[in-house]
Amino acid sequence: MADDAVLKLLKARLPARHATAAVKHFRDAVLEYQKREWDDASAKTGKFVEAVLKALVVHTSLPNVPTAGRAFSAGTCIDRLPGAQGFDDTLRLTIPRACRFIYDIASNRGARHDPDEIDPNEMDATSALNTSAWVLAELLRYAQKGGDLTQTAALVAGLMRRRYPFIEEVDGRVYFHVLDISARGVALLTLWHRYPGRVARSELVAAVKRHRFTENNAQVAVTRLAGAVDDDGQGLLYLLIPGLREAERLVEKAEQRSA
Question: DSSP 3-state assignment of 199?
């Protein structure tokens, strides 16, 4: 899952507790936004900011800046982080400035707007969430130590990917409650659901069989993914752009039917 890959990278350089909290709050913000719960989405980005600031304070070992209990203050963290000499400017200056913007929206959601305005809270939530995604991408870039920026973008996109009511995951097993879906469609959606991660060929076969297709149907369906996937030579498949687009068309069609 994208969440696991992001956490693995963040934990390599940032405190695990706060990195885990940041990813959780970011994911929660995305889910609230997708439900059109604008105020709740903004509130979750505020929680995300708090977790990020705590992670940065602990990582930079800033003295006399509380990160727990009532003594914690986001404003104090933002004001003090520029003094963390010897650390990347993105940690000291850029991310704290972005956090201040997000936190201002989260702390004053709906309070600054005329009630006659059109969807002001949606605009606030959109700005806060997009800026939070940028902050997360910057943290990943820092954690990767100059690694693959394409991977960073893919991981953040994975976290932002919408969750749908016709997709259900039970103990790691995914189900697609979609009418008239083919065996190949199940395989494609399974790869899409796990994107940007790879999926073992055997796992794809098992996913197809869970949707009441035979072993032979499942094997043939996975074989017919050629051209839509990259095989690493060890049976681990990655969804290529043509396959990603095909899967997104299936998702769009399913969403229209469930509307």
Answer: strand
The model's pTM is: 0.66
Q: Looking at residue 112, what DSSP letter applies?
A: T
Question: What pLDDT digit, counting tens, does each position of 14-68 carry?
Answer: 999 999 999 999 988 987 887 778 889 999 999 999 999 999 999 999 998 988 8
**CB neighbour list of residue 39: distance below 8 Å, 6 or more residues apart:** 109, 110, 121, 125
Nearest Cα to Cα of residue 95 among 7, 14, 161: 14
Strand partners, 238: 230
The tokens of 92 are what? 């000291």
Q: What single letter denotes the amino acid at residue 30?
A: V
- What residues pair up with 199 in beta bridges, in sequence order? 237
Helix (H) or strand (E) holding 230: strand 229-231
Tally of helices (H runs) and strands (E runs) in the chain: 12, 5
Residues 217 and 225: their CA atoms lie apart, in Å, by 13
CB atoms within 10 A of CB 200: 12
Dihedral sign from CA coordinates of 73, 79, 82, 83: negative
Residues in CB range of 245: below 8 A, 6 or more apart: none
Q: What tokens were used for 62? A: 């800033």
3-state class of 34 per DSSP?
A: helix
